[in-house]
Amino acid sequence: MTFWSEPLGQLGTKDPKRNYRFQVIFNGLSDEVIWYAKTITKPQLQIGETEHKYLGHTFYYPGVATWTTVSMTLVDPVSPAAAAQMNAIIRASGYRVPGGTTAPDLETMSKAKAAAALGGVQIIQMDSAGLPLETWSLINPFITELKFGDLDYSDDALAELAMTLRYDYATCEIGATADGARVDLFGAAATTPPAAKSFFKNTDN
After folding, report:
1. Which of 52, 88, 91, 196 gives 181 a disulfide partner, CB atoms 3.0 to 4.6 angstroms apart?
2. Nearest Cα to 172, choosing from 106, 127, 129, 125?
3. 186 — phi, psi (to 5°)?
4. What separation in angstroms does the CA of 130 have from each of 23, 32, 77?
């Protein structure tokens, strides 16, 4: 039965997913839950296409898969200072302003340092009991854009920071309280096993 046709309070009845039930974790900040996260986009997967023309017909084939960037908005609570934390991550990524001519001053950013500074990033979507329904993990993420917000004498809203994250790919774990993928939806020769809950890994199960 659908959630809107089941009696409320019935044992086993599940709410649909809600946009405000989420957590963000930066492993580079000692696995800290970023409680001052305001918004975040979930990973998006784009699959290219290649066309082949034959006479008056056009046929399409799936091409290269690309994971698009994730955008995140943070409130700056002062303690901890979000601006300071993000600056520290950028610095640990290898960025230095122009200075001297010695080796330390000539340091530049690298993917290894940038990914290590941020650590793994997890986006956890939860149910009403606080249990994970989806856990998205960004693999090798790093910051590509950091905006420190705007100031306005006529605006009394909380100060915000915005950032954009690039990553190689993402994995998705479906929580124990959510149903997995149904093999019958993929046909008799399905490659996805019944009740699959792990996706985009080398060992999907």
Report:
1. 196
2. 125
3. -110, 5
4. 10, 17, 23
- Residues contacting residue 122 through CB under 8 Å, at least 6 positions apart: 23, 24, 25, 27, 135, 136, 137, 138
Strand order in the sheet with 70-75: 37-40, 70-75, 160-166, 142-147
CB 190 within 8 A of CB 183: yes
DSSP code for 185: G
Please tell me the distance from the alpha carbon of residue 32 to that of residue 30, in angstroms, as a whole number. 5
AA identity, residue 175 = G
Per-residue buried b or exposed e for 1-24, using 16+ beta carbons within 10 Å of the residue's own CB: eeeeeeeeeeeeeeeeeeeebbbb
Strand partners, 196: 181
Alpha-carbon torsion 130, 132, 138, 144, what sign?
negative
Query: Going residue by residue through the chain (205 aa), what tens digit of pLDDT does each one get?
Result: 555 566 655 555 677 889 999 999 988 776 578 888 999 999 999 999 999 999 999 999 999 999 999 999 999 888 888 888 889 999 999 888 887 778 777 888 899 999 999 888 999 999 888 889 999 999 999 999 999 999 999 999 999 999 999 999 999 988 887 777 665 555 555 555 555 777 877 665 4
Predicted TM-score (pTM) of the model is 0.81
